[in-house]
Automatic annotation (TrEMBL):
The chain crosses the membrane at residues 62-79, 91-109, 115-138, 150-169, 175-199. Its main location: endoplasmic reticulum. Keywords: Endoplasmic reticulum, ER-Golgi transport, Membrane, Protein transport, Receptor, Transmembrane, Transmembrane helix, Transport. It is found in: Endoplasmic reticulum membrane. This is ER lumen protein-retaining receptor. GO terms for cellular component: endoplasmic reticulum membrane. Belongs to the ERD2 family. InterPro entries: ER_ret_rcpt.
Amino acid sequence: MNIFRLLGDFSHLGAIIILLLKIWKTRSCAGVSGKSVLLYAVVFTCRYLDLFTHFVSLYNSVMKIIYLVSTYFTLFLIYRKFKATYDRNHDTFRIEFLILPSAVLALLWNHEYSVLEILWTFSIYLESVAVLPQLFMVSKTGEAETITSHYLFALGIYRFLYILNWIYRYYTENFIDWISVVAGVVQTVLYCDFFYLYITKVLKGKKLSLPA
């Protein structure tokens, strides 16, 4: 494992922890898209179905379990424990428009026609757009809490670090996975506008507000 993937993994884990702490400490999930978290739960479930059938390393297995448990716990907080604070009126993105195209694309472009491989490919495509409901929610409300901005920034950095990981692997191992690369680039591009606002506003101590 190279440093870019390691940092990417911990950036992803950091994003999840930031979101959990935000919800738990404020006792509120206001400003958080439950639909985005739901999509990530689908992503991790489909991707890690091989958890008990294909052992890679202890680190790999532990991280998979952490991602699954923390994501489903976040869903529990949003839809059960603090559901009174969940802003359904602004979390209105039609996620079927993300799930169905990802499923069709997984059937058309994959590495192997097996159930686990197609589900893994589906998870890669779906993850590339899973943040859209959260970004859409921010666009509808016109602003995001600072802690929510940190969560989104950590997710974006995770994907950027994984692009560096793929570049590193190409030059050191002569390995490239075009499915992961294309999906990762798409996801990173989705963050570009947010990154600009984060750097110019949030890092200067201002609340992230979208231009009218």
